[in-house]
């Protein structure tokens, strides 16, 4: 397999010289520029569309006119699957499937082959195939990514227990968990992200239709992020509590980024080389309680300023947090149980993870409380060196825990990217 970690950027002639992408990360993340489809295509509008909701996985890119959104294309083939280091998109669908009764390894292999071909086509802005619904007919690829993962139960269903990664062992129970089993886990997991809602829905529907009789939807969650170009300048996105969220994510340019996020080439099991593990948690925000707090109180819960995300010890968003700094009475200015203090790798034996969430809002409960929060998705080379130690710490005494509730959970092995002509998971299913 050739190293496809640096896919060629597709820059149409009309865009040459116009793409003022200062991120330097677009090609690295597998994002290319693509001529806009339809009437907007010829005017050189495709400028830095990879900016996405900057602040999580990608370096900021220049602010872009919304009209360029459709032209941005992420690469399906590559060393890693798309949707991990790709810039966060405006719309997301997370879906878990269970294999149907009687479906085993053969049916699963055929399904992954179908899904991979559909994902490849749609990410390139092509129709899904002969039965295309036409929903995204006039849109460009809009940074669509489709990412596939395997849950613990998949291996039992397909007789592949011997190949189940040790890292996929069920997550431990946490005392604050209030998990709904029907919205947790699953044999297969698909993450869809796009900067256009119709493009994302179109992909979701194609993936559901491809499942045919082989698998059925176990649960589905729909999320969103800020749309690229919505702010005057690229900035880290905000969550539904209003906080700037994503500042201290590992950056692809960090020397140890790959070690933290991806299974190494010679990692175990071999079929997971260049893959990653996704922890998915539906975390409800108790917004009625949160919004009653003063801004100062909210800032003490997190340990950072609400306006600009700067640490309470001073400076700007990216200024290192001074954990030792005290106020006049000798109290730490960043409270001991502040969320951004206790989640730091240096407070957790080096544990690190790449957060790439979507916000969600599923309406109101009967009692009038909003069902809204974070579809927390984090990526790591090993959950025991990422999510688990950090969540253990949070479970013991995070100031934020009074204002959130973990309602569902999943852990998925996401294999490396498919080479040209391969499908995702082929090395597991045919190796
Ligand atoms: C187990 C891991 C984590 C969960 C669950 C989690 C939930 C959660 N976080 C916020 C808001 C913020 N988190 C911030 C930082 C931060 N959070 C985690 C981990 C989990 N968060 C880490 C590893 C970090 C970075 C720590 C560091 O390296 O310094 C911040 C501060 C800004 C930032 O760095 O992103 C905010 C804000 C919410 C609302 C939430 C659940 C709903
Ligand atoms: Fe956090």
UniProtKB/TrEMBL annotation:
Catalytic activity annotation: heme b + 2 H(+) = protoporphyrin IX + Fe(2+)
Single GO MF descriptor: ferrochelatase activity
Domain Dyp-type peroxidase C-terminal, first and last residues per copy: 236-418
GO biological process assignments: iron import into cell
Cofactor needs: heme b
Top EC class of this enzyme: oxidoreductase
Region (Disordered): 1-29, 304-330
Chain ranges of the Dyp-type peroxidase N-terminal domain: 81-225
Statement: the UniProt record of this protein carries the keyword Lyase: yes
UniProt-listed InterPro entries: Dimeric_a/b-barrel (IPR011008), Dyp_perox_C (IPR048328), Dyp_perox_N (IPR048327), Dyp_peroxidase (IPR006314), EfeB/EfeN (IPR006313), TAT_signal (IPR006311)
NCBIfam families, A to Z: Dyp_perox_fam (TIGR01413), tat_substr_1 (TIGR01412)
Sequence similarity: Belongs to the DyP-type peroxidase family.
Functional note: Involved in the recovery of exogenous heme iron. Extracts iron from heme while preserving the protoporphyrin ring intact.
Descriptive protein name: Deferrochelatase
